[in-house]
Amino acid sequence: MSPLPSHAALLPLLLVAPSLSLSPSPALAPSLASAQGKGKGKEEDYKEAERLLRTTEEKTVREGAQLCGRLNSVRSIEFLLDVLAGVQPHFRDIAWEVLPEFTDRYARQRIEHELRTNLRDPEIRVWCAQLLGLYGDAAFGGALEKALSDREAEVRRAAAQALGRIRYAPAVKSLLKASKEKDPYLRAESVEALARIDPEGMRTVFLGALADADAGARCALLGALPGLYPDAAEERSAAALSDSDWRPRLQATENLAAIRSKPSLDGLVRATGDARPVVREKAVAALREMTGMMWTERREWWAKNREAFDLPMGKGAAPASQPEKTRVTYHGLQVTSDHVAFLIDKSDTMRARLTDGREKGAAALSELESVLSRLRGDLVFNVFTYAAEVEPLWKAAAPLDERAQKAALSFVEKATTGGKKDIWNALRTVVDDPTLDTLYLLSSGEPEVGLYVHWNRVTLHLKDLNRFHKVVVHTVAYSDSDWYREQLQKIAEATGGKFVGTE
Fold first, then answer.
1. What whole-number distance in Å separates Cα of residue 394 and Cα of residue 386?
2. How far does CA 432 lie from the centroid of its chain?
3. Which helix (H) or strand (E) covers residue 233, if one does?
4. CATH architecture of the region 7-209
5. Residue-by-residue DSSP string for 256-276
6. Fold for the domain defined by 215-305
7. What integer best gives the mean pLDDT of the chain?
8. Please, which pLDDT band fits residue 306 given cuts at 50, 70 and 90?
9. Residue 236 above 60 pLDDT?
10. CATH 3.40.50.410 fits 329-502, yes or no
């Protein structure tokens, strides 16, 4: 990222230029001066926080960040802004653990000022917009509305989402304009924000947007539907089961699974016949939980017995145990989807050996060969390798046949091993493919580089992105580190996936 202007250097300018007020409230300069003055008695704490943040160990940097949070002032939040602007991604993620917890009015206004004035670094503007939304104060609406016109799409999206969080009514006109932009992410964020600001007035706008031209936008808005318009959730979700794209159909199935009624059961029974296995599996699991019955191939039974069927109160009794069909597994994780991606670590740590003596890279290749040989003819797939950069086998997923299998294995075997790994970039690249619904992520250790590295921010942004994509991420750790295993487990949990560790 580009370096930020010195935050300390900005304060004298603010103190002599009331016209640079950060909000419509009285000029900020005297307020900032007052807020800074309050910290004089804590000068030793500020020096200690600054010292800790300049160390090179995560433990001490976290201590410094936590001290900044306790100081809860303009000066301490500026220390953390410096960390956010730095090149060490681990420390940026540590700063984010604390930044949303600031309550001091002037410290929060310092974040607003950064959003308005930092023209060099769009990521900083994104994070500032997100923070202002989390603070939940409508006083920051003006800065966020202005950010809807930012030159960077990510900033505009973050601003739209934040305006919905703070329910800033004066931005309705700007959000309506944004809801018609080419960017489907911005359209969906803007429509949802409008509904949060004025639920009754924007009901028609929101329900109409469920027919957006982009399937990802339709999916995200369907996900927000039950919380915004619960009275329309059942009918609109049932209608979405006919969507041409699997993502809205899967979201609709999840919506219906949360509604205990015969019409919702009708929809779920219908979804058991969906063309996508992930939709069918979700519907069958929901029906089993709601009724206590096994639902494989029971659509005809439902048609005959619907009227006499009484939906059990609470969760249905557990269905009688039955032996599952033998399924293909990848490192012990069942492969139930027919549109799959395999994301294989090729960073330097893949040169190390597992406890059974095999090199990690060789073990990964062997496992991939095993699973592909058993799925030939039943799978559309792609393979990606990653270290600091991500490399796809093909631009688009392809059917698995003998030729495709050979190409995939050769691709992984010949890929260069070495360097550091960026898991966030790898995840974002694969999740962006709308044809893939399941991802198997194999990694050998903690990511060293990337925009986000710790699970707190990787999962935060993955869940946000996945509102549009619905990809289930299963994770495999070639590591005996409890710390790193937790990282991968949290990534899997964020998408409804499963985790397995191999030493």
1. 14
2. 12
3. helix 230-240
4. Alpha Horseshoe (1.25)
5. HHT--SHHHHHHHHHHTT-SS
6. Leucine-rich Repeat Variant (1.25.10)
7. 89
8. confident
9. yes
10. yes
